[in-house]
Design brief:
It is a single chain. The chain is of the alpha+beta class. Helix content is 33%, strand content 26%. It has nine helices and 19 strands. It has a six-stranded antiparallel barrel with strand order 2-3-6-5-4-7. The protein has a five-stranded mixed sheet with strand order 15-16-17-19-18, with helices on both faces. Strand 16 and strand 17 form a beta hairpin. Helix 3 packs across helix 4 and helix 8 packs antiparallel against helix 9.
């Protein structure tokens, strides 16, 4: 039975969430001038889904893809128009589409022009202090139409849409949880966060730490963080004018970027827990943000330093993780014909039985290889005469070469025990029972004369395009395709006849 769960975030941002603490700082109201990043509608009201604003500028992007702001762009947008479709750069007076920053990826959304046309915002970036919306044109949309409807002063509707808000909610949950986690790590364990990554959903996010944590420390941090979650501590944002002297990035994703020109310092405050400069969007409360820390860390070794990653989940990602984990466990329990609590024991039982079965097969194969080798060795004259033969087998084993090698080793041993001095040259081949054009047949050549073994190998390469090689008394290779005794077997016999002793 499938298990589902939902997360119900607050629907309205409290009026006390956004607080301008500088007496001279105001939100620009000129519709032809953009609100700087730090005072955007998405930062003032992170739960706002729609907004009506005006266009400040619109131009065709000089790049066919969204600029990476100096970062390696590993993200690939799924769906949507082809990358070679025209890309527009649109600056609005205000926006609810968050531009990438503070370690938080960009929102996606939709712009609605005055004629009712919908335009897809595939990403938003901060350029200096302004938010730039990158709009990828659909096949039916033209650049001329876009420049007309997004002329300066034109009224524009901005919407996150259902998918866009789910993405925003996920980002807010993980970002606010990161602030909480980092604060608890620093105050309770004196462990500083060096960096963090808001990974693509549904993968866990992580914080990078200067040292590893014991399982007991991880459990302690999780318990302390969730105590605060259950208290439902509130979150608010304090905004003030930026002192140019402190405009510095203090870490990879911490502090204020050196290229920021918006003139605004934004501090995210978790009541009684943390104060941290950040431009990202955050929920107005940590209530419902139960935090789960994966009970292990990952060590990263660099040329001069090392750090440790601690992975965490919260919000929709935690629900997805719990749902998928339960589904996997229930499916495994069904396959193993047991209850979920018995799965570890049953899996261990299967592993133990598999090891015993593998050992038994190995013993039987060794016994069979010795029997086949004995049969072949019996054909070698003690003195005078020679043995030249090809033996083909049908075998679906994944270790066919190992089995053929066991036969050759046992053969040589038995010939030595017999005291035979007659020369011999043997070709063994092994093909699967069901063959196709991509099937692989293993070929092994061994003999008493190294030179003749090599000659047979060269003949197999030339006549059957077998790929392989060898040294001394053994040569092995692979034939790709359907092996037929009437065709490939005859070719092997012809090669052996041409060699002779």
């Amino acid at each position: 039975m499938a298990v589902t769960a939902t997360l119900s975030p607050p629907s309205v941002t409290p009026p006390t969430y956004h607080r301008i603490v500088s007496p001279t700082l105001t939100i620009p109201n000129d519709p032809l001038h953009p609100v700087p990043v730090g005072l955007l509608a998405c930062q003032r009201d992170p739960l706002l889904r729609e907004l009506t604003t005006t266009t400040v500028s619109c131009r065709v992007s000089q790049s066919p893809s969204v600029p990476s702001n100096g970062r390696e762009g590993k993200k690939k947008k799924a769906g949507g128009p082809e990358p070679n479709a025209p890309l527009l750069e649109i600056v609005l007076h205000d926006t609810i589409i968050f531009p990438e920053g503070g370690g938080q990826p960009s929102d996606v959304g939709v712009l609605t022009s005055s004629d009712g046309e919908l335009w897809d915002v595939v990403e938003a970036k901060r350029h200096g202090g302004h938010a730039v919306h990158y709009v990828r044109l659909k096949p039916a949309q033209t650049v001329d139409d876009a420049l007309r409807v997004f002329s300066p002063g034109a009224v524009v509707g901005v919407s996150l849409g259902e998918d866009g808000f789910k993405r925003r909610l996920d980002h807010m949950c993980m970002h606010t949880s990161q602030h909480l986690l980092s604060a608890v790590l620093e105050t309770k364990l004196n462990v500083e966060t060096l960096a963090w990554s808001l990974t693509a959903s549904p993968a866990p996010c992580y914080v990078e730490l200067a040292r590893g944590l014991t399982p007991e420390e991880i459990a302690f941090v999780q318990e302390e963080a969730n105590k605060l979650v259950f208290e439902g501590r509130s979150v608010h944002v304090e905004v003030e004018e930026l002192d140019p002297q402190v405009k510095v990035m203090s870490g990879p994703t911490v502090g204020i970027p050196s290229d920021y020109t918006g003139g605004v310092k934004r501090t995210v405050v978790i009541d009684g827990i943390d104060r941290n400069p950040c431009c990202g969007t955050h929920l107005p409360s940590i209530h419902n943000l139960q935090l789960f820390l994966l009970p292990h860390t990952e060590t990263l070794a660099r040329s001069t330093t090392s750090s440790v990653r601690l992975y965490f989940l919260s919000g929709p990602r935690l629900i997805t993780h719990l749902t998928s984990t339960h589904t996997f466990l229930a499916s495994t329990a069904s396959i193993m014909s047991c209850g979920a609590p018995q799965v570890p024991d049953r899996v261990q039982q299967v592993i133990d039985e598999r090891k015993k079965a593998t050992k038994r097969v190995e013993d039987l194969e060794a016994e069979l290889a010795a029997a086949i080798a004995g049969e072949l060795a019996a054909s070698v004259p003690r003195e005078g005469g020679e043995l030249v033969l090809h033996r083909h087998r049908t075998d679906d084993s994944t270790t066919a070469l190992g089995f053929l090698s066991a036969i050759s080793t046992a053969f040589m041993s038995k010939v030595a025990e017999k005291g035979a001095t007659s020369p011999y040259l043997v070709v063994l081949s092994s093909a699967p029972s069901a063959q196709t054009s991509t099937s692989t047949t293993i070929v092994l050549v061994f003999g008493s004369d190294d030179k003749k073994v090599k000659e047979v190998g060269d003949g197999l390469k030339a006549k059957l395009t077998v790929k392989g090689g060898g040294k001394g008394p053994r040569w092995s290779g692979k034939f790709t395709g359907v092996w037929k005794e009437a065709r490939e077997g005859t070719a092997v016999a012809s090669i052996l006849e041409s060699i002779g002793f």
